[in-house]
Amino acid sequence: MSDVTGRMTADFPLWSPEQMFTLAADIERYPDFIPWCKSARVVSRQDTMWQVENHFGAGPVDATFRTIARPDPPRSLEITATQAPFRHFRLEWRFAPLPGGGCRVAASYALALRSPILHGLARLAMPEATRKVILRFKERAATLYGGDTSRML
Length: 153
Known about the structure:
This protein has 153 residues and is an alpha+beta fold. The protein has helices at residues 17-25, 116-145, and strands at residues 4-12, 37-46, 49-58, 61-72, 76-81, 86-97, 103-113.
């Protein structure tokens, strides 16, 4: 079974890398704007590593698992897991200033699920999920920081 992989990049001309990092690092608010996230709770927080309990679900698919988040403000946030339902999971967010202001957000992911059925579903769902995450990040940034997003959405 090959990994499910992908990349996404979006420019956020209205908000700084610090603001976008803060939005991405506010893991406990993910249920408010990340598709299929039912809960996310930081159970242990050290300077360079957070342990997070996650609950995601859609329809009959429901999973609770732990991840490790490694923040490097305001440049990056890496999230990894090896606990079921994953064989492995890695999501890396990068935040870079745009010339003239704003932020370019780039993310890459690679995952493999233990269940072949869930792995196949993830392979089919991830392109749409990626699109929704970027849209929800823009909506969330507008809610938190203000600004006219009509030209960005």
